[in-house]
Specification:
Elements (H helix, E strand, L loop, with lengths): L1 H9 L1 H11 L12 H8 L7 H4 L2 H11 L18 E8 L10 E5 H4 L2 H11 L10 E3 L11 E2 L2 E7 L5 E6 L21 E2 L3 E4 L5 E5 L12 E6 L5 E5 L6 E5 L5 E6 L18 E5 L4 E6 L5 E6 L5 E5 L28 E6 L5 E5 L4 E5 L5 E6 L12 E4 L7 E6 L4 E6 L5 E5 L12 E6 L5 E5 L5 E7 L11
Parallel strand pairs: 4-7
Antiparallel strand pairs: 1-2, 3-28, 5-6, 6-8, 8-9, 10-11, 11-12, 12-13, 14-15, 15-16, 16-17, 18-19, 19-20, 20-21, 22-23, 23-24, 24-25, 26-27, 27-28
Helix pairs in contact: 1-7, 2-5, 2-7
């Protein structure tokens, strides 16, 4: 910026004309004396821009290049006699401005303004997009659990407003060999099932744990998904055979609300219960909870966050949800007109767009909050196993530029451009080593860009991945 200031001091008028044009002025609509054209933009009247305006076609040609337009030769009028062109001075316009290395002779006065022109190029050319984030595993996260505890299938992860990390796991998925110390009599000195809900700090220390059956609510038969709303309440879903409920707790584990009920499954038209719900997200301004419903039903359904009252619901393409039997996914076939099972995640961006994981159809569908369809994009479309779109998380920059996509079939995490769905990065592969995955099921991102993942089937673990280098996010306030 100091260099630019010095350049402006030496060639203020030239820079101002170029800035004016780069800001969108019509090159064909210049005032005869230039003052009326330039004053509204510049706010100055003490400079004589008349001679520079006689060079207007040249400046317009330069600015067209800055905008990325094709080069058009300057045809009229030729450089004026105000300053005699210096044959020894050449302006080499770089390929980055679209000029392809074109060079032309210019006046000594304009040549003296080249430092200012370089600053202008930096300020007015479209800024190169920052490189997509890259990640490396933190193999020491989390720290060993106390009390000889061990994790079962880790079926959900979330980050709260303090960047603490919440994991929900399935104690009942542990084998007798894994939980041998809890048997009667104990078979070995380790291990015992950890409680279903665990909260960790950034260093991987366990802060608290709770969960399981209790009075006044139906704990899910198979824990599935956890999210923390803007007030710190903890929401838990489940996809057991008869799970049709969503639970809300305080951070300490005190029961607050149950939406739906456990029991025989019904269908996607039933608003009194859910159908093996997978996960949730929140619109705090509207006081609503959105549910990805689910492993039995084929819909997004919205409830009041305080009362649990039904608000609205929709299926694929914003149409009423149906339960028509779908055949196996075929990447060559026309896109399915309803969500497949499971409808595995829902994410709400700050701009109001709602992203839905249609997992086994290998696609993300995008909606407005009223359920109207916006667009869809496919991810690893040839994945025929159990789908490529298991989970999404929004990158925490101001524009939420990226979506992170967990894929438990191909066992990787992708970085997608949120605007297009294009894949711009990925990490992980199938395996058991740190940084690898077996059935990666969920992911969450904190305010600093750290990514937390959980794995089901025989993966049974949580991992942390830290961004490499400066990813341009504000530093956390202690």
């Amino acid at each position: 910026m100091d260099t630019c200031a010095a350049a402006q001091k030496d060639s203020f008028a030239v820079l101002m004309v170029l800035q004016f044009l780069a800001a969108g002025a019509d090159c064909a609509a210049r005032d005869s004396d230039g003052v009326a054209v330039l004053q509204p933009f510049l706010g100055v009247s003490s400079l004589d821009f008349g001679p520079l305006l006689r060079e207007w076609p040249f400046f317009c040609a330069v600015v067209r290049l800055l905008r990325g337009d094709p080069w058009e030769p300057v045809t009229e009028p030729p450089l004026s006699d105000w300053i005699r062109p210096d044959p020894g001075v050449m302006l080499a316009l770089s390929a980055g401005t679209g000029a392809g290395g074109y060079a032309m002779g210019i006046s000594a006065r304009i040549a003296a303004a080249l430092p200012a022109l370089a600053c202008l190029i930096a300020l007015t050319s479209p800024a190169a997009a920052a490189d997509p984030p890259r990640f490396q595993v933190d193999p020491a996260w989390p720290k060993p659990l106390p009390n000889d505890w061990i994790l079962g299938q880790a079926a959900g992860v979330a980050v709260d407003a303090h960047d603490n990390v919440w994991v929900i796991q399935r104690p009942r998925t542990l084998t007798d060999d894994e939980k041998a110390a809890s048997l009667d009599p104990p078979r070995t000195k380790c291990c015992k099932p950890a409680p279903p809900v665990l909260e960790f700090d950034q260093a991987g220390n366990l802060l608290r744990s709770w969960g399981g059956p209790g009075t006044g609510y139906a704990w899910p038969a198979n824990e599935h998904g956890i999210q923390i709303d803007g007030q710190g309440f903890v929401w838990i879903a489940g996809n057991g055979d008869q799970d049709g409920q969503l639970l809300k707790f305080t951070p300490e584990g005190k029961f607050v609300l149950q939406i739906g009920q456990s029991g025989p499954q019904t269908d996607s038209r039933d608003t009194s219960r859910l159908g093996k719900p997978a996960n949730v997200d929140f619109d705090m301004a509207a006081n609503e909870v959105y549910v990805a419903d689910g492993y039995y039903n084929h819909r997004i359904i919205v409830f009041d966050r305080d009362t649990g009252a039904f608000k609205r619901m929709w299926g694929a393409y914003g149409k009423p949800p149906t339960d028509d039997k779908l055949g196996p996914y075929d990447p060559a076939a026309a896109p399915a007109q309803q969500f497949a099972n499971p409808v595995h995640c829902v994410r709400i961006a700050k701009d109001g767009l709602v992203y839905v994981c249609d997992r086994t159809n290998d696609r993300v569908q995008v909606f407005r909050k009223d359920g109207s369809f916006v667009t869809e994009f496919f991810v690893e479309k040839n994945t025929r196993a159990n789908g490529s779109v298991w989970e999404l998380a929004l990158w925490p920059d101001a524009n939420q530029t990226y979506l992170l996509n967990a894929d438990g079939a191909n066992n990787e995490v992708r970085t997608l451009e949120r605007a297009t769905g294009a894949v711009v990065g990925a990490f992980g592969r199938n395996g058991r080593m740190a940084g690898q995955f077996h059935w990666i099921h969920n992911l969450a991102v904190d305010s600093q860009g750290n990514v937390f993942t959980t794995e089901v089937d025989t993966g049974k673990r949580a991992q942390k991945f830290v961004p490499v280098g400066d990813v341009g996010l504000p530093k956390r306030t202690p």
